[in-house]
Amino acid sequence: MSASIHLPRVSVADADHPLARAFASFTEAAGSLERTYSQLQAQVVQMRQELEITNHNLAKSLAENQRIRARLNRILEGLPCGVLVIEPEGRISVCNPEAERLLGTTADDVKALPPVLSETFERAQASGEEQEICCLAQNGTPVVWIAIRHALVEQDPESSTSVFILRDVSEAKKLEQEQEQVRRQQALVEMSALLAHEIRNPLGSLELFAGLLAEANLAGESQRWVEHVQAGLRTLSATVNNVLHLYNTPNSECADMDAGELLDWAYDFLLPLAKQAKVEIQVVNGLRSVIVRADRHRLEQVLLNLALNAFRFMSGGGWLNIRGDDRQDGIEIVVEDTGPGIAPADLPRIFQPGFSTRPGSCGLGLAVCQRIIEQHGGTIEAENCLGYGARFRLRLPAKGAMA
User: What pTM was computed for the model?
Assistant: First the structure.
């Protein structure tokens, strides 16, 4: 809005009059002021428009920043690694959920962290290399291995904010430990197999000489000593053969064999062992002239292992019964004793290598039995006899049925 100024009329003749000149100057100044005021109004309108645009852009930028910040926070919370941001004064400004889980704390101050963690952060910052530390979760278990790496946000290392990246390397450590254990076990297996091979040859000679002495009809007590020697040598031979069968599986040498002869051999071979253990042995042979295709040496090892297992659990004496039956789909051999039986909780594990309830046992006998029978296409089952002892059922397929 402009202002109008009405001046008295001055004639031309009075134009040189001082008052006329003054009015003319005033009129010119008023016009200039009016023009300046109009320009100022236009500038104010323009500045208001620009301010509105600026405010709109700022609001839009702020909303975008908030959206980006929220997105970054979601990304930070969802990262599979921990992120810890420490300000120059020692305050923790960022600690995402994974870092809280690994550190077992929501501390907002570095001093609140366990000393061992603070020291690890310092080493990572000083060395620039990833540091590993083993610590416990909040409840004391399980063990957690954490790898910590340091990064600078700014160039000045003395005053800048520090970022620490934390990784859970527990599974990698566990795998590394398992691999190391496997390597040690493999070395032990190779050494055991080597020792078993070295022992087997002289042991065979000792068994041969002991057999010759047993056939020499020595006088009473000397004969008993020979039987004890035979029993000890056969027990040692069984242990050596278990190591070889389990860890150094030889090629099968299957051939047609009389299953009845296998049971007759079992009685003669186990008799010295039974006498030493004060156990009565009985063989019910229903397999005479029954032909099966199998590796006899390995089946002998199975019966020897089962018998030795029974003798060891009948320290006060007892009975061992071996029974063979001819079935339509193959043969069945049952070995049962009058020992304490098998604890129900142990039944699912007794065929696992290394499992044993007897102190000092290597736990290979039953595992070897299962492996040999399965190599023949058969099955072996363990159960408790009604009221006493343990029973093992061996089933082998009929001739020509083995896979």
Answer: 0.53
